[in-house]
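HOLO CASE FILE
Compound: pyruvic acid
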Amino acid sequence: MSTPPSQRVSIIGGGGNVGATIAFALLAKGVSVEVLIVDKADNAAHGQAMDIDDASFSLPGTCRIGTFQEAGQSDVIIVTAGARQKPGESRSSLVDRNYEIIGSIMESMKPIRPTARILVVSNPVDVLTDIAQKTSGLPRNQVLGSGTYLDTGRLRNELSVITGVSSTSIHAYMLGEHGDNQFVGWASATIGGQPLLSHPKMAGVDREAIHERVRRKAYEIIEAKGSTYYGIGLCAANITEALLYNTSQVYSVTNYVERFGCYMSWPAAIGRGGVEQSFEVRLDDAEKKQFDVALDAIKSACAKF
Ligand SMILES: NC(=O)C1=CN([C@@H]2O[C@H](COP(=O)(O)OP(=O)(O)OC[C@H]3O[C@@H](n4cnc5c(N)ncnc54)[C@H](O)[C@@H]3O)[C@@H](O)[C@H]2O)C=CC1
Ligand SMILES: CC(=O)C(=O)O
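Model generated. Tokens follow.
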């Protein structure tokens, strides 16, 4: 396509696996957007941008390499830059390596367009989203993270196999933290208006085993192939689509929840302005305890920066 589309999405860290996969997923979904790949590794960014743009010949979007200044003027800025987990390593252990990267990226992009929306994907995503908001200076609703959207997809796939219902028709969320303290919102989960737990095929199911498989899925993939990128590629593309097309889709993203007093992975409606509504989710007593652990972990990590 010779004329770039009018909306621009920049991916900082797009020279790496996650950023490049998000770029490809956005274009492959048919989103009419100019994607800019920005990375401190120029050569990797150049290569990824050329390779991804090769896929655009039959699509409405385009892809090219970009600068930090151009990224700062984009409609949506996606951050995937930084270290990733080694096998067996937790997401939270990345914070010391990644928090300075987030701060320096925000500085390099300034002045940031006041209407830009920032989507953080780098880990630990809940804490880094808080740092991105503070260092970018943008309003809280315009700075969000991919949160437990990916974990929610993993959960719904598990539940789909058990119940025989499409994962898109199962309303169940992984909540709290995109990390070891994520938990399943069993008490609020429904299928077709019916509580999930009253579905006949859920009787006798080992719920703790499901929770553990979802919680450990990233570890398992990283152990086997070094990193994860396809799942998050599509999740981030879906969130970006909601931001560009004002769809008000509900995803469990990292968003600032006023009543919790911090960023947390929690269901929210996403539209052009960023986070439009954050929802109250009914928790049972066991889930309330898990919630407290996740809240405490995020708050104490954020307090260090
Ligand atoms: N939130 C989620 O669900 C997921 C998050 N991730 C996270 O995404 C991040 C990226 O993972 P991968 O793409 O696999 O890593 P990668 O190593 O393939 O790519 C990281 C890229 O960041 C770039 N980079 C580093 N510092 C930079 C800076 N200051 N400015 C610009 N670019 C910079 C590197 O040059 C590299 O190209 C990790 O933190 C990982 O944990 C990964 C999968 C899922
Ligand atoms: C790496 C990571 O955060 C995930 O795949 O969930």
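CASE NOTES: The mean pLDDT is 97. Residues 207-225 form the longest helix (19 residues).
CLOSED: yes
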